[in-house]
Amino acid sequence: MSEPASVFPRLEPILPSVQKPIQYVGGELNATLKDWGKDTDMVRWALMYPDAYEVGLPNQGVQILYEVLNERDDALAERTYSVWPDLEARMREHGIPQFTVDCHRPVRAFDLFGISFSTELGYTNMLTALDLAGIPLHSADRTDDDPIVIAGGHAAFNPEPIADFVDAAVLGDGEEVVLAISSVVREWKAEGRPGGRVEVLARLAASGNIYVPAFYDVEYAEDGGLRAVVPNRAEAPPRVRKHTLMDLDSWPYPRKPLVPLAETVHERFSVEIFRGCTRGCRFCQAGMITRPVRERSITTIGDMVEQGVRASGFDEVGLLSLSSADHTEIAEVANGLADRYQGTNVSLSLPSTRVDAFNITLANEFSRNGRRSGLTFAPEGGSERMRKVINKAVTEEDLIRTVATAYSHGWRQVKLYFMCGLPTETDADVLEIADLATKVIAKGREVSGHNDVRCTVSIGGFVPKAHTPFQWAAQLDAETTDERLRQLRDTVRADRRFARAIGFRYHDGKPGIIEGLLSRGDRRVGRVIEEVWRAGGRFDGWSEHFSYERWMNAAAIALAGTGVDVAWFTTRERTYAEVLPWDHLDSGLDKDWLWQDWEDALAAADDPESVADVEDCRWTPCYDCGVCPEMGTDIQIGPTGQTLLPLSVV
Amino acid sequence: MAREMPVQQPPPVQRVRIAYAKRGRLRFTSHRDFSRAFERALVRARIPMAFSSGFNPHPRISYAGAAPTGSASEAEYLEIGLAETMPTDQIAALLDESLPDGLDIIEVVTSAGGSLADRLEASHWQITMPGVDLPRAEEAVARFLATAEIPVERMTKKGMRRFDSRAAVVHLSARAGENTPTHETCAILDVVLRHGIPSVRPDDILAGLREIAGLDAEVAPVQQRLAQGPLDPVTGTVGDPLSPDRDAAVPNGR
Questions:
Q1: Using CA atoms, how far apart are residues A395 and B60, in angstroms rounded to an integer?
Q2: In this model, does residue A650 exceed pLDDT 50?
Q3: Which of A266, B12, B96, B118 has the most CB atoms less than 10 A away?
Q4: Per the CB < 8 Å rule, is B40 touching A16?
Q5: DSSP bridge partners of B17
Q6: In whole angstroms, what is the distance from residue A627 CA to residue A635 CA?
Q7: What span, in angstroms and rounded, lies between the C-alpha atoms of A110 and A113?
């Protein structure tokens, strides 16, 4: 397509009348503005994080792909985010299409429109963006003038609910895949686009890594369930495999973090210190679909931190991963970085720390340049029995010992994350959280010698996810979730000696049911998404925009006559024999291993001593989850034995 | 473990005053956005900042009279305190390179003392109104100037406020602007506003013109501050707030 005109001259006059106009103008430090190039040799991507700019801009996945693509001469990538309803209305009024913030080009002019879904609650925002862009909502209605719409991110591991709206979905790590997709598209364009978009999608599908929903037919059974999902084209493999990036040291992105002018939810530079987690928490989709563990080496981490801080000016560095204290050289990393940045304004943070991996030396290193404001732990299950069921074997003793250490070393606040509605859970399991919080405060007062200690209990409803041992579980209904949370709140508040020291934060159960519908839904759920969007559904991740009633009404209309309803997708337990909507999508996990793990969870519920914990395969023998042999991958961990040298003075 | 008292930070060894511009699409940066961007630019530029004392030391920066979100400016000012001396031309070059395009350093001078904020008595604003023809604008300006008091309303953080937009106006005139692709006519207003409480902004003048003479633009007018500084009571013009510092500085930039 010839170079499209910037929409900025038309956008600019309406910006003064919308909230926080800065989020729509781009101009971030380290943003890349590239020439549109020649159609035959340039592949152009519009990358979207389907939420507001303040949430989407810091997203690591989008920033990484943006940089990986823009480093190449024959590719360009620009970013686009969801516009708030105030601007959406003005854009419709003035006929302004969905635009990128980099060069304000219309999204429809790009070859590819990649959307990264960390959460299913972004689906309605995708429809807004497609519609504003002038791209038909349904893949089937698109022409050769429309971009190829590709979904990625964790939610793409079950893209069936959005199968009608996307042309393709990519499972797994994106760095190499975006380049492979670019090559296929570039070649096809250079050949003069033979066979149109169907041909290019067929070529992508033939790679085995890219799922093209239109190339698969879904057959339904009499009882409303699935009978089979079968390919309808020779290029489409029976199962589409996830992609795994090996050797993270060769991919040290982001190198030039985007620094926005607008305020965003994470004002820091984040370095991913490893990818994957094999702790084996049964509820955790992230831990299941990102196996195996692949570490970045201490020296690469050190280089990335230094370069990122210099290039961004951020004064906080977050060491990201699913369980950061599990890095084999975390102590050396912490110590080396704390030494390097001693006396500067750069502070370090370790966002995800397990109770059993916490140690005070580490915590002290991380707070050397910062404040001891708070520590966060996630026991997830309120009772020891629940923690056995979810395979997060943290004992009460562990937890109390850990918080006692923290309080005695000057920390005043501990945050504890829990889930409500885990399989086999009873009221009593949840009420134990109150007991635990009380013990935490009592211990904190005892070891610190003063009353100025706080504990915040944060609790949300558990949502079963695809590709986990709990994918067969019945989700707890919203009413029971809310009732349990109410009882917990009342119990916490009832004890006046502790009530004021314990903060209680919770989310009601209703959004969780909709997330559950979208997480384990099949293609029929797509009609619900479209219906709710047509009824005004936007920004479903934001409580002030989310409407449960709108979703339930939409579901009643869209699922009428199918024989299934919201409860069928959410609060119903699945059987071993059932065809799951994502069975043709290969995360590497052996389904029989997942089922065995699910049965072990149920056995542990009846008799916590009967079944041993699933240990982490980084330090015990392989337990055959299936990923490494299936994907041809291997665990990549240290220690490397190297250390961080002091930075030379310039 | 008891909390240790924070280390007392030494006072700055050099204070410098910075004139900067907010241009193009970055006119949509709010003051908060700007201050975050500026603090990060200081880090990237490795300016040897002095910090405040306290548990959470902050770099020593004093902002003065920031332009409202959405308005461009060629005349914004702030002052920073340094822990080590640095030539002002070097500060200007390093900072300008470290700030995004559109937030541009105009000049850096060493402070000769006195309050910078106190020197910012008035602003000269230029308001571009595409689609408004000059006679129409002139008539509205005449009616505005002939009126003693023109109450307008504005939504503030404390709710809707009602105040006079006329008294703060030292000068108001209209001239013809260049035609744009979308509009065949264009009027430009020049207005000099005395700073005060409540602060009267160019928006309020537009509201007053709408109120008193029905002057309305088809598209949002673009506001740009051309100057900010001491007010000459005789001529009604706005002077340069940094000239006392410039006059006092030694020629080599220190």
A1: 48
A2: no
A3: B12
A4: no
A5: B79, B109
A6: 10
A7: 7
Which chain A residues contact residue B56 at CB under 8 A?
A: 371
Kindly list the residues from chain A whose CB atom is less than 8 angstroms away from the CB atom of residue B219: 13
Confidence (pLDDT) at A373: 65
pLDDT tens figures, A518-574 = 999 999 999 999 999 999 999 999 999 999 999 999 999 999 999 999 999 999 999
Nearest CA in chain A to B128: A13
Q: How many CB pairs under 8 A join A and B?
A: 73
- Distance CA(A179)–CA(A175), nearest Å, equals 7
| Dihedral angle over CA of B61, B62, B66, B70, nearest 10 | 20
CB nearest A315 (choices: B28, B43, B101): B43
Q: Which tokens belong to A349?
A: 């943070």
Separation of alpha carbons A461 and A269, rounded Å: 30
Measure the CA–CA gap between A98 and A595, rounded to whole angstroms: 44
Selected residue of A261, A267, A341, A448 to mutate for chain B interface (largest B Cβ count, 10 A): A261
Run of H or E including A179: helix A175-190
Q: Which of A22, A93, A373, A452 to mutate to test the interface with B (most CBs of B within 10 A)?
A: A22
Quote the tokens at residue A228: 């089979």
Residue B4's identity, in one-letter code, is: E
Residue B109's DSSP bridge partners are B17
Alpha carbons B97 and B99: distance in angstroms, whole number: 6
Q: Are A47 and A151 in contact (CB under 8 A)?
A: no
Residue A144: how many CB atoms within 10 A of its CB? 10
Q: What percent of chain A has a predicted confidence (pLDDT) above 90?
A: 85
| Sign of the alpha-carbon dihedral angle for A389, A391, A396, A397 | positive
pLDDT, tens only, B97-136: 999 999 999 999 999 999 999 999 999 999 999 999 999 9
Max intra-chain CA distance, chain B: 75
How far is the first Cα of chain B from the last one, in angstroms, to the nearest whole number? Answer: 46
Asked whether the predicted pLDDT for residue B6 surpasses 80, the reply is: no
User: Quick check: A297 and A636 in contact, CB under 8 A?
Assistant: no
Q: How far apart are CA B102 and CA A311, in angstroms?
A: 18
| Residue of A353, A378, A273, A284 lying closest to A321 (CA atoms) | A273
B34–A410 CB contact, under 8 Å: no
Whether pLDDT at A310 is above 60: yes
Give residue A1's pLDDT: 64
Residues of A in contact with B40 (CB under 8 A): 29, 259, 312-315
pLDDT digits (tens, 9 = 90+) for A101-128: 999 999 999 999 999 999 999 999 999 9
- Asked if A12 lies within 8 A of B25 by C-beta distance, the reply is yes
Question: What's the burial of B240, exposed, middle or buried (CB within 10 Å: 0-12/13-18/19+)?
Answer: middle
DSSP B231: B
Nearest CA to CA, how far is B97 from chain A (Å)?
11
Cα distances from A207 to residues A215, A247, A280, A536, in angstroms, run 14, 21, 30, 38
User: Hey, how many other C-beta atoms are within 10 angstroms of the C-beta on B252?
Assistant: 8
B103-110 and B14-22 as β-strands: parallel, antiparallel, unpaired? antiparallel
Q: Is A21 on the interface with B (CB under 8 A)?
A: yes
A45: nearest Cα among A23, A17, A8, A78: A78
Q: Which among B37, B23, B223, B35 is positioned nearest to B104, based on CA atoms?
A: B23
CA distance B125 to A301: 49
Distance CA B67, CA B73 (A): 7
**Whole-number Cα distances in Å, A35 to A42, A99, A133, A184, B100:** 10, 16, 21, 21, 19
Cβ contact (<8 Å) for B33 and A15?
Answer: no
Retrieve residue A209's tokens.
């890594």
Give the H/E segment covering residue A93. helix A85-94
- A312/B44 touch (CB, cutoff 8 Å), yes or no: yes
